[in-house]
Amino acid sequence: MSAQIKAEAEASAATKKLNTAIEALPDGFALYDDEDRLVICNSKYRELYALNAPAIVEGASFESILRFGLARGQFPTAIGREEEWLRERLETHRRADNMVEQELPGGRWLRILERETSDGGRVGVRIDITELKEKQFELERTALTDSLTGLANRHGLSAFLDRVPATLVLGERLALLHLDLDKFKAINDAIGHMLT
């Protein structure tokens, strides 16, 4: 009997250490079993998914957690196409190894890394990459706009024109007006940015 009690005590101590380590992670962590039911997650995981946190409970299926979040607007890119988004996300989730970037409300972004466990389950981390995405969007905006006027530059105009054919209805026409101001830079440098 004492060997069994000792083994149970050791197992309990190991479980406490594991839980402490998982809680100490700076990123969201979740482990799902081979039936895609939540085994364990840390509080950061629930914090990142605040709108569907009530559904993030031990034993809940990954799909039911997603559906709960979809009903509450947890995933902005899914709005208006919920079932299609859910199907795509579940397909990605079931791949052996995957990485997904996911937008959350308020302009927050996560990078999701998921791997299959040896017993057929899934383990994943959620890394907040909001700051990285903001810098990426700013670089894209800078590359496509004029810094002085904020209007599209040549690259921005070209990117816009590349997207136009997909938006036109059959038979619809498009007009383009191009203005070129001679010596704009010289005038602007002489008079100043505030007056132009």
Structure description:
The protein is α+β, with helices and mostly antiparallel strands and 196 residues long. 45% of the residues lie in helices and 17% in strands. The chain has helices at residues 2-24, 43-48, 62-71, 82-94, 130-144, 154-167, 184-191, and strands at residues 28-32, 38-41, 97-104, 108-116, 122-128. Strands 2-1-5-4-3 form a 5-stranded antiparallel sheet, with helices on both faces. The termini are far apart.
Write the layout of secondary structure elements.
Elements: H1 2-24, E1 28-32, E2 38-41, H2 43-48, H3 62-71, H4 82-94, E3 97-104, E4 108-116, E5 122-128, H5 130-144, H6 154-167, H7 184-191
Antiparallel strand pairs: 1-2, 1-5, 3-4, 4-5
